[in-house]
Amino acid sequence: MTPIKIMDLPRFNPFSAEFREAPYRVYSRLRELNPLHKVLGMWVVTRHADVMSILRDRSCNVSIIPKLVDNQAAKFARDNAPFQRLAYKSIVFTENPDHHRLRKLMNVAFSQAAMDQLQFSIAHITRELLTEGRLQGGMDMISGLAQPLPLRVMCEWIGIPPDMHGSIDAWTHAIRFLLEPGLMVKDDFEKVSAVLDDYMAYIADVIAERKRKPGQDLISQLLDLQIDGIV
Predict the structure, then answer these.
(1) Which site among 9, 109, 117, 144 is 20 to 30 Å from 72 CA-CA?
(2) Model's pTM, two decimal places?
(3) Confidence band, pLDDT 50/70/90 cuts, at residue 7
(4) b/e per residue 67-100 (b: at least 16 CB within 10 A)
(5) Which of 39 and 26 is assigned the larger pLDDT?
(6) Would you call 152 helix, strand, or coil by DSSP?
(7) Alpha-carbon distance 54 to 37, whole Å?
């Protein structure tokens, strides 16, 4: 059997035609032939045992992501202030003790009772999307159901009006690069900064409105928890 050269090993590339056509086949080849490699400025880990080992390793943490974004922005001499305002206070990128404080707040809001109630909303939105697909004579299950479903569920739970769902979708899609800083180029930072400014300004307005007029939405519940001194 002829040994495989390093240059011939499969490498993770989410933009390749092969990956877009058959991602699971690519993942299978990666697990078999190149389960751990560095590409696009990040480490790619494809085997379950390796993933679990990293997740259990306390020396590996999410706080490195904001640092990587900062380093990439500095390389291109781009302003990263909008992301810094978000990242260093977000539950997604924080470690203890800040993460524990935010997690405590979210655990109260994401109670079992709240999740049980949310099932009705999920079922209702799912039926609406499937009905739309049937009336159109068919649908792509990813773009027609899997992609819009979680967004609509969260928007309704947060209390975002339907006419803003498209903007929230576009903003969320635009800032996805922040999770893969190695892929970001100069123009990405300008685009993401502008989107973050719009996104955060809109959410700030929503929060201000809920302070004046609380409802049954998630933001109102979290504000009520803060007022009650839970965190």
Answers:
(1) 9
(2) 0.73
(3) low
(4) ebbeebbeeeebebebbeebbeeeeebbeeeebe
(5) 26
(6) helix
(7) 14
